[in-house]
Structures are given as structure tokens and as C-alpha cells.
DNA sequence: CTGGGGAGGGGGCCC
DNA sequence: GGGGCCCCCTCCCCA
């Protein structure tokens, strides 16, 4: 949704126009998200629409709850719990709340606020540790990670996977940032990624009620702070704070000494890191073996869901799944799509084009996959068999639905045929894995399935008073939350210390697929032996 | 409960 | 490297 009064000139070259003459067109505004952040920062500095005041040892900072909730797990959980109980405290959306954060150094808090609104962390190396501590307390993991990188600190036990993640995620620090400067194109992408992350992390809510506050008290900043601020002031002239070349160039001469550092927020992979290590294993086991040949394209990691996206140019496409941006609109019915090829397929509905005819009957299909499924009907092949009740299905997803639907409990009376060379044998390998009963799955200690596919944030079902459901979804880290004194918004359900419960430290799924296949194979082998006996 | 269509999303290939 | 095109998988919905 672009704001006409806010966005710049739309990228008319990327306008997706459908064949229709008078149809609606979707005009993307790539700069919208960055300008939105810039505008928010201007509002913060002017004290406009600020509905949250942070205090630290006498210093006061006006800010926006939605922005803080977008960048900080602490505030997200805090406000999430708060809004989950309407009628709780009258502060909800009704005025300016005050959060006292005396355990966070004022300089660090100021730096984190700047980061929240500019995507750039400007700190002195001497204050690095304070910022690290503050970022940990407030659950701003990317900042904490970057600080750890700079400080050369290693994490605690069992964090190896996290460090690997960091390497893949490519937090750009120090000289490595110059790689970004060299490529304005990549920079735009990274900018888009970060803004997308913000727009993703921030639930779609109505704007907070207007609550003008007094002039924003300038935080006590370290000497040299302004010197390294973007020229012309933050966001001056509608520029994109934190990503302008001037900002980057201002940090060219970084040294480990007591000079301010500019730490770019989470970005994509740097080119150097692109070369680090082999690309991650495919999610499904069937591909690596004998399916399509995997081209060694540069994998990129989504800064939002941490998913590895294979293929050059695929990350922007993936990011639209988080931002909800649908630039491609059907001229006939107005339905919007995130991808041009999906719109193209959709248009077949209106044109009547069904490019996949069945050679055996008059049936024609919109998708090649539908034809493939349809051909199974003619052949009579039902390659997808329930391992428990042995009911066979034409389609794999129907088998999955069968397994999920009524939790097939029928006794296994017949062993599935092995090596029958049925249609989709290779697919069966993966479907067998998916068909492992829950009891087996638990016995195998399979990692929990990725839950970031469609809804990044799980609904608050039956959790503790302060929702921690989103924590494992936001990465394997669960920052400890101290007893931060918060006035104006009362956290229902008890003290905030409960936030510190590290209830989730899920690692990446790992080689679960091959594991499961081996288990299944082993079971089959055992059964073979039993049968022979 | 099942078959089928549509849509969303990821990956490979190619330009 | 970005983007188009295609294939594939998965999920949702409907009859």
C-alpha cells in the first residue's frame, strides 16, 4: 500500500501492467518503506505522535511504541501482552507511557533509538559494552550480535549454531561495510531488506493515538556523535538515514580505538561471506540426491525469517512474502499477486487458456502440476500410500491430508511395496518421511518443523501472560529480560522477570531429512529380516 | 472423506 | 546479479 503523498516517484519501469486497457495497475514504491522510517524519525525528533517515553538515569527519550515493538523483543512482548488484555490499564493507546530503563546506560539507549529509526548504529567503541548489554536486555539481537563481533566475544555454550547463523547472516561491521558502499545496488537491496524486516516485525495496527509530548530531550551523547551523524542532520531533506553514502563514508577510517563506529543493521550476505562455506542443504532430501542439479548459486539469508534463499535475485521475491507487497494486479478482477509469473498463470483463468492438455482426454489444465496429477488418474497409479492403513492416493498432499486429518490408526497389515518402480518413486522417499507417525517422529527426536512458512507470529494461544511464542520464531536466541521497571503500562500476569524464561532455543532443523529416511530404512530392513525369519 | 482447482512459495535454468 | 519463466511442492477451499 503506497502512500501517494509520501512516496517518491514510483518505479514506472517496474510497473506491472496487465494486458487489459483500463485495468488497474500496481505501481510499486520501493522507496516507501525507507521514507516511512525516515518520516518516523522526524516525528520522533519533533516529539510528534510519540506515545512512549523512555527514561534512563534522568534522561528522557520520546519514541513510538510501534517502532520499539518492531525492533525490540522486550517491547514487543510487553506491548503484546498488554494489548492482549483489553481493559487492563488505561494507558493502552490512550496516552504517553513511560518506561524507566535505569539499567540501560543513557548513551546506549540513545544509540539503540537511533538504530531503531535509522538502521544504523552509531556508537563509540568505548561504549560498545554498554550497548551490547542494553541490546541484550531489550532483545535487539542483531545489535547485540554486531557488538559481540566487534568485541570479539564468543557466546556461551551451545551457541555454535547461532554463530554459524551470524556468519551466514552477514552482519556488516568495520571494513566489510565498505563492500556495501561499493555497490549501490546491493545497498538498495539491503535497505529494502531491513525496511521489510521492520514492516514485517511490526504488526499491522492502527496508528497510535496522537500524544504530543514536550520537546525531545537531547540525550547525552558521546563526543563526536554529531560529527559522525549524517550530513545535514538526521534524515535531512528526506534522505534515507543510515544508508546514505555520506553516512557510510563518514565511517571510513574506523579503527579499534575510541572512534565512533557505524554498524549496519542486519543485512544480506556480504560477498566475502558468500564464499564462506558450502551452501546449506536443501530442505527436502529428495533434491540433493538425484533430482534437479543444484546450481551453485549464491544463497542469501532472509533477515526476517533467517531462511536461506537459493538463487540470485530470489531474495527480493521472498521478501515480498513478509512485506505483503503485491505489485502485480490482475486487470480483469483486481486480484493482486506478489509475483509476475503468478499473475500470468492467473490470467489464464480470464483468457481461458489452458496450456496443459491431457493426451488421453479432453481435459486441459492451468498448471503443469495439475496435468501431472491428472495423468495419474489415467494410469491408475496411486503412488502415495499411507504407511499405516495403506490407502493409496493420487496426490502427495492428499496423503498428507489423510495423515493429518484423522490420524490414521489402522494396523499396518501389509508392508508397503519397495522398489516397485512406481510413479514418483523419488518423491515417495520424501513422502515416506513425511508419513512417519507422530510417535515415530518423537522417537526420532526430529526437530520441530519450521513454522515460519506462512504466519511468522503464532497467535497467542495459551501461553504465559507475556507472550513468548514469537521468541523462537525470531531466532534461536532468547535474550534474558531483566526486571525493567515500566510505568504506565502494567504487565499483566506478574513481574517482568518471567520474560527471562528461555523457553525456546531451537536450532536449525539440521539433517533431519536424511536421518528420518535412515530410520525409515532401518525399520524396513528390520522388517525384512523379521519376515525372512 | 476424497478428488480437483487455485494460489502461495521455493528452486533451477536461462537471458 | 537481477529478473523472467518454469517446475515442483504445499496448503486451502469447494463440490
Keywords:
disordered N terminus; DNA-binding; Znf_C2H2_sf; four-stranded mixed beta sheet; alpha+beta; disordered C terminus; elongated; Double Stranded RNA Binding Domain; 533 residues; RNA polymerase II cis-regulatory region sequence-specific DNA binding; Potassium Channel Kv1.1, Chain A; 8% strand; two-stranded antiparallel ribbon
Give a written overview of the molecule.
Helix 2 (65-71) packs across helix 3 (73-83), helix 4 (106-118) crosses helix 5 (128-138) and helix 17 (425-434) crosses helix 20 (512-532). The strands form six sheets. The chain has a four-stranded mixed sheet with strand order 2-1-3-14. Among the domains are: 31-79 and 97-151, Potassium Channel Kv1.1, Chain A; 298-353, 2-Layer Sandwich (Double Stranded RNA Binding Domain), CATH 3.30.160.60; 355-410, Classic Zinc Finger (Double Stranded RNA Binding Domain, 2-Layer Sandwich), CATH 3.30.160. It contains 20 helices and 14 strands. A hairpin with a 6-residue loop joins strand 6 (300-301) and strand 7 (308-309). With 533 residues, the chain is of the alpha+beta class. It binds a DNA duplex (15 and 15 nucleotides) through helix 9, helix 13, helix 14, helix 15 and helix 16.
Amino acid at each position: 500500500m503506497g502512500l501517494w503523498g509520501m512516496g517518491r516517484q514510483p518505479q514506472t519501469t517496474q510497473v506491472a501492467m496487465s494486458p487489459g486497457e483500463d485495468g488497474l495497475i500496481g505501481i510499486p514504491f520501493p522507496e516507501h518503506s525507507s521514507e516511512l522510517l525516515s518520516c518516523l524519525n522526524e516525528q520522533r525528533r519533533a516529539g510528534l505522535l510519540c506515545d512512549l517515553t523512555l527514561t534512563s538515569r534522568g534522561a528522557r527519550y520520546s519514541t513510538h511504541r510501534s517502532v520499539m515493538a518492531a525492533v525490540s523483543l522486550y517491547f514487543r512482548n510487553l506491548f503484546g501482552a498488554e494489548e492482549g488484555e483489553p481493559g487492563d490499564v488505561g494507558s493502552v493507546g490512550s496516552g504517553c507511557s513511560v518506561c524507566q530503563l535505569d539499567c540501560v546506560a543513557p548513551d546506549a539507549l540513545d544509540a539503540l533509538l537511533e538504530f531503531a529509526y535509522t538502521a544504523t548504529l552509531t556508537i563509540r567503541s568505548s561504549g560498545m559494552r554498554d550497548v551490547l548489554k542494553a541490546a541484550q536486555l531489550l532483545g535487539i539481537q542483531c545489535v547485540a550480535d554486531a557488538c559481540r563481533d566487534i568485541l570479539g566475544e564468543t557466546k556461551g555454550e551451545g551457541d555454535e549454531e547461532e554463530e554459524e547463523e551470524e556468519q551466514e547472516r552477514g552482519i556488516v561491521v568495520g571494513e566489510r561495510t565498505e563492500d556495501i558502499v561499493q555497490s549501490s545496488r546491493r545497498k538498495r537491496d539491503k535497505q529494502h531488506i531491513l525496511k521489510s524486516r521492520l514492516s514485517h516485525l511490526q504488526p499491522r495496527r492502527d496508528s497510535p493515538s496522537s500524544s504530543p509530548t514536550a520537546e525531545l530531550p537531547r540525550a547525552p551523547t558521546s563526543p563526536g556523535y554529531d560529527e559522525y551523524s549524517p550530513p545535514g542532520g538526521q534524515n535531512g531533506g528526506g534522505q534515507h538515514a543510515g544508508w546514505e553514502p555520506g553516512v557510510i563514508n563518514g565511517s571510513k577510517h574506523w579503527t579499534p580505538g575510541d572512534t565512533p563506529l557505524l554498524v549496519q543493521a542486519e543485512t544480506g550476505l556480504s560477498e566475502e561471506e558468500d564464499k564462506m562455506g558450502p551452501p546449506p542443504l536443501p530442505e527436502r532430501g529428495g533434491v540433493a540426491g538425484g533430482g534437479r542439479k543444484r546450481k551453485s548459486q549464491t544463497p542469501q539469508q532472509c533477515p526476517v525469517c533467517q531462511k536461506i534463499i537459493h538463487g540470485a535475485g530470489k531474495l527480493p521475491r521472498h521478501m515480498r512474502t513478509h512485506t505483503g507487497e503485491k505489485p502485480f494486479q490482475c486487470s480483469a478482477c483486481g486480484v493482486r499477486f506478489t509475483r509476475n509469473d503468478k499473475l500470468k498463470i492467473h490470467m489464464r483463468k480470464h483468457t481461458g487458456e489452458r496450456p496443459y492438455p491431457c493426451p488421453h482426454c479432453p481435459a486441459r489444465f492451468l498448471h503443469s502440476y495439475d496435468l501431472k496429477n491428472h495423468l495419474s488418474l489415467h494410469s491408475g497409479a496411486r503412488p502415495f500410500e499411507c504407511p499405516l492403513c495403506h490407502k493409496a492416493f493420487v496426490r502427495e498432499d492428499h496423503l498428507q491430508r489423510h495423515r493429518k486429518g484423522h490420524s490414521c490408526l489402522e494396523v499396518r497389515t501389509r508392508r508397503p511395496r519397495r522398489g516397485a518402480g512406481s510413479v514418483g518413486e523419488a518423491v515417495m522417499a520424501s513422502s515416506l518421511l513425511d508419513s512417519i507417525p507422530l510417535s515415530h517422529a518423537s522417537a526420532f527426536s526430529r526437530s520441530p518443523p519450521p513454522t515460519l512458512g506462512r504466519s511468522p507470529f503464532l497467535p497467542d494461544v495459551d501461553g504465559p501472560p507475556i507472550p513468548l511464542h514469537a521468541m523462537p520464531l525470531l531466532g534461536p536466541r532468547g535474550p534474558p529480560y531483566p526486571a525493567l521497571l515500566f510505568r504506565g503500562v502494567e504487565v499483566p500476569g506478574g513481574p517482568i522477570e518471567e520474560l527471562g524464561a528461555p523457553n525456546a532455543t531451537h536450532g536449525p532443523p539440521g539433517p533431519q531429512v536424511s536421518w528420518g529416511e535412515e530410520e525409515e530404512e532401518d525399520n524396513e530392513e528390520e522388517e525384512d529380516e523379521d519376515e525372512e525369519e
